[in-house]
Amino acid sequence: MKKIVFTLLSAFAISQVSAQEKVYFTSTPSLSPDAKTVYFSYDGDIWSTDINGGNASRITALEGEEINPRVSPDGKWLAFSSNQYGNYDIYVMPINGGQIKQLTFHQAKDEVESWSWDSKSIYFTSNQNNGFGSFKINLDGKTPEALFTNYFNTTNGLVETPQGEYIFTNSSESASQVTRKRYKGENNPDLLGYNPTTKSYKQYTDYNGKDFNPTVDKNGIIYFISDENNGEYNLYQLANGKKEALTKFETSIKKPFVSADGSKVVFEKDYQLFVYDVKAKTSKPLTINVNSNKSLEKEQNFEVENNIDYFDISPDGKKMAFVSRGIIFVSDNEGKFINQISDGKERVLEVKWLKDNKNLIFNQTYKGYQNWFKISAEGKGKVEQLTSDLRNNRDITFNNDLSQAVYLSGRDEVRLLDLKSLKSSTIVKDEIWAFQNSKPSFSPNDEYVLFSAKRNFELDIFIHNIKKNTTVNLTNTGVSEADPTWSPDGKYIYFSSDRKNPSYPLGMQESSIYRASLDWFDQAYKSEKFDNLFVEEKKVEKKEKKEEKNDFKALTINPEGFLERIELVTDRFGYQTNPFVFTDDKKQFLFYNTNQENGKFQLHRKTTTDFEEDKTDKIFNKGADFIVKNEKNLYALIDNSVYKFGISSTNPEKVSIKYNFNKNLASEFNQMYEEAWAGVEENFYDENFHGIDWKAKKEQYATFLPYVNNRNDLRILLNDMLGELNSSHLGFSSFGKEESRRLNYFTNETGIIFKKDQPFTVEKILRKSPAFLKNVDVQEGDILVSVNGQKIDQNQNRETYFTTPKKLEELTLEFDRKGKTISTKIHPISNNELKSLLYDEWIYENRQRVKKLSNDRIAYSYMKNMSTSELDVFLLDMVEQENRKDGVILDLRFNTGGNVHDKVLNFLSQRPYLKWKYREGQLTVQPNFAPSGKPIVLLINEYSLSDAEMTAAGFKALKLGKIIGQETYRWIIFTSGKGLVDGSFYRLPSWGTYTLDGQNLEKTGVKPDIYIKNTFLDRLENKDPQLERAIQEVMKELK
């Protein structure tokens, strides 16, 4: 184990941030009991400084991040969390220096919250058993214990009062969604209290907003965060039951911590530390100096090999331009001689060669948006900016004589780019959407532009006559026809589609490649081919042949009957997409991706020749992003590498491109910030941005970009900015190789539940777990004495025996069973699998409750989310129960959403419409399953979110039954996302959801018909008033 570092680091080795330069991204602060010393996290380490500021001392220097320093009330110990082994664990060390001791070992995320007042125990929040919950571990390092039962008592931020009461919150808005500001809804966090000795429970605040992050002094005064006054997080106190605002900042605070003596409160504000003087009732920033190692500006080395995002081959076939990590490179067509062309300060996404083989057109971010630029392929001369739009210009295609380009712009424009004047013009304004597009293209004679636009969320195929400036919708079907492309002879349009089902909300579930002829063309005649055998060919020069090859006659386009001329081209098995069509020697080649062989996408080719059977071949064992053709070869981007192959070959050859380049993360982070902001600006579902000045927020948070020290700071900054929108389905995630850990650990779970007070004694066996299986000999009351031959020390943390560098295939456990040693083997599972089984146990207990209280007359189905896998669970529940039960309860409490609302509602809407029977048999209704002919109750609560809210709204609109529980979360915007230059990702909530009378569900949620609240105490005592009321309502209708 790496030991603590106490040192006055050499001023020659490490630069010191002076008093004149403020220190930012100091976080998770706390105070010594006497309020004389401040402890905080900065640049991944724990530091301390005087309460009046000055020079700070680095306390830890472990690999990874150390956060949440907390000093014991007796002032002797410092606890903190560190992810040096991949996940956050709890550590403790003497306050005056010495050996660091690791207390928790489970692979879960353990974050220190506070100490007990006797300085013997540490409280922490962990996702070991569920989403998150409160735990306690003693200073001696024995096995930690969960403080509360029930899978959905997801408590967080727990502190202990001097009287022994626990103060905490029980909401995701105070845990994983802290950055979301101004949320008001049923899931708002309130301060709750529970006394483990007296078993008394109390709700301390009931404001319809956010009250969270409690901290308590020795007098029992509670300090916490609330946004009640102005929508910003400010410091409040709760004394004698009265809530009082202590600050009125216009920007939010974070992470308040009161000293044990109650004299000072330290907190974060604007990424700096502030101290509130309780007696003087004043706040001031803490000015500190730190010895910091500014490494973000240092150049890092990257490789282009297997990291190519886009490429193009020059018209002469000799050169290649490609993009890697947002930078343009140019090489010969074999990838041997490479030169970096762009500087990498902005992100390049697409690059195309101009006709002269010397210049490139590319799109690069400008103020965060993709715009078009021109640059010399030799890397000489200045960059010429062609557009300066505050919208994303993308998906460019050149015409056949390389005189014009077509591209998409923003949410609503198709544009032409004249490749001589380099001027753009808009030819179509329509509902394009600003991402997830099919690429536009030119007809083979360059007369038409083929593009896609949205109708009722589905892609239709359009053609635009450039000269006549007319546009025709060829499909207009109500389902999506995606990826349209011309056949080189101009007779067909190929596309991918699931022709019977819309692609929203589930996405295109089945896809095949189709083609439609542009008129009622006849097939070739064999007799004409025979006659041509005796026609002498006129000899022409090679140059003339080449010119004649591109001399297309006017295309024939007959929109009438277009849908009737659609024909299936590929097999119906599997999923086919991304058609690319080429011709060569009177043969037509269709390349496409399909997963029909083994479930993984592979590149296939279908060859069509007059008077011959079509032939289909597998070309490569991976799918292609796109394919380009030059005179001799095809080139494809496959798995971030360029492959070359002949049009008739089945053996693509990887073009070996090896080159290293340098780039610094500071510059890259600045570009990513701009691009993420612009992406949200262009795609956020509400053009009024929930009443926030989005541009002003960009400027506000950009002032802190120069002080970002590492990737974690960037994550904090961007998520804070996104949180200003008070929106669901937002977030920025990022991981870099610099954050990789040398050591990671895995906890081998068994499904054995041990007793709280006897952590090595079996309390019960979890249903369906490895320990539940018949061949495993474990019983309640058994005492664990050995794991894989290692004898148990009951003074040790039990987690140490089950946590290993990687998952074990099997465990050998020995138990003491009433004096007899029992040995058994178990196949362990992951912690996520264990949590899923704990969730299943909660569902099982609900089902048993329904069965008992309804005398087995009610079908009960629970959906964890609205995914296709949970849809299958629901349908199987109905198949197994509905036709033999008298009523139905569908439970969507704690449901985390998805996109199958339509499928669920359609099933529930089925009503009986007739009966039939075999001779002398029993009459049976049609359809087989007709739940709508029976009483149905839908259960919802404050955690029902996203598509669960869509389902509840639809259930109410269709009047399918009663809704019981609490109002839903108000977390419903359909979302997607975009990647950034380094692989980071940000979410884009782009599609709002509204009731038939226009209410925005993100703002209103869905209210139940009968309001019943389940409290923390109900769950703790294994009570479920909501479910019991649902049973009562169904039974009432059955009388």
The level 1 CATH classification of the domain at 15-292 is: Mainly Beta
The CATH topology of the domain at 15-292 is Neuraminidase
Q: Tell me the radius of gyration.
A: 33 Å
Main sheet record: 5 strands, parallel
Q: How are the strands ordered across the major sheet?
A: 67-68-71-72-75
Say which CATH homologous superfamily of the domain at 15-292 is assigned.
Tricorn protease N-terminal domain
CATH architecture field of the domain at 15-292: 6 Propeller
Number of helices: 13
Number of strands: 75
Low-pLDDT parts are 1-20, 544-550
What class do helices, strands and sheet pairing give?
mainly beta
What percentage of amino acids are in beta strands?
A: 35-45%
Please tell me what the overall shape is: globular
Helical content (DSSP H or I, runs of 4+): 10-25%
Description:
- The chain has 1039 residues and is mostly beta strands.
- Among the domains are: 15-292, Neuraminidase, CATH 2.120.10; 746-831, Pdz3 Domain (Roll); 857-970 and 1005-1038, 2-enoyl-CoA Hydratase, Chain A, domain 1 (Alpha-Beta Complex).
- Helix content is 13%, strand content 36%.
- The chain contains 13 helices and 75 strands.
- A five-stranded parallel β-sheet has the order 67-68-71-72-75, sandwiched between helices. A four-stranded antiparallel β-sheet has the order 2-3-4-6, with no helix packed on it.
- The chain is globular, with a radius of gyration of 33 Å.
